[in-house]
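Human: Note token order:
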Amino acid sequence: MSTPDPTLHVNPQKARKGLDRLWHATLYSLNGLKAGWGEPAFRMEACLAIVLLPLAFIVGQSWIETALLVAGVLLVMIVELLNTAVEAAIDRIGPEWHDLSKRAKDMGSAAVFLTSLLAGGIWLAALWQRFFA
């Protein structure tokens, strides 16, 4: 009886080194953004980012303010992608309702909500400082 070759089912990315690994990681990341674009919430946030990111350079009065405005927008998109990844992993397990699945999805949604509140607060503070202070 022969023992199975443990390298048969290993992710090929693990064996890559240097620029080859970086190149493939970049391609995987672009695939992730493409998959995210298929999600309505991420698509809406990306469209908002197209408007808000250039606006950040107008509203921000210093490089720190501009960086905070940009970071707030990007952070919402990052957390949305992570939330979508959690939901996809749970859906992969099975479509049936389970309390732990619901909790995980609800917590992912709460993370997006809190991040959106944070970004909104940063933007409101910057707009107030810029136009009303």
Notes: The first helix runs from residue 18 to 37.
